[in-house]
Amino acid sequence: MRASAGHLRSTAGRRQRPAPLAATAIAVVLASALPAVLGGCGIISPLPTNRGQLIEPVDYAKLSPGTSTRDDVQNLLGSPTAHATFDDNTWFYIGEVTAPVPMSRPSVQKQEVVELKFDSAGVLRSVRRLNKQDGTNVAMTGRTTPSPGSDTSIMQQLIGNVGRYSPMGMDSLGGIGGSGGLGSNNGYGHGGQGNTLP
């Protein structure tokens, strides 16, 4: 027992040795990798992105149908995102909030359309607010629109044009500038007859 008690006294008086360099390096690596690990867990998420013009209810509540004019609307909300195709008296303010999704399209968190209708004198007649639930999914079709022309491949187009290329107006006999030769006035360029106006 005496030996062990003496051993305790002798180690208690000594200074503690600093941690080895390897342990410190591991702690630094773990501390620097922590944000990346937490980012993968979703704790640190990307910020949502505003797209278009999101009109707050407080702002369009200031509009009063029957008294507000187009100028009042533009001063309060700014220029509209779109006008109706065949009716300039219908304005749309379109906006959405999206959040990025890894390996996919952004998810739409909020979507809003404010429709304003004016009369022919430019006075606001109605304010209608539409959101994501009012939308309709449109199915895409797999059909293609026919276009005029033939169904030739790129190689057929390239090979088919061999022999049609005529640099600098060379004729089939190897002369430059057509039948008149080099100095004639009926070739390409500003001096040719093809470029003169009546």
UniProtKB/TrEMBL annotation:
Coiled coil: none annotated. The keyword Signal applies. Residues 52-126 form the Outer membrane protein assembly factor BamE domain. Keywords: Cell outer membrane, Membrane, Signal. It comes from the Bacteria. InterPro entries: BamE, BamE-like, BamE_dom. This is Outer membrane protein assembly factor BamE. The gene is bamE.
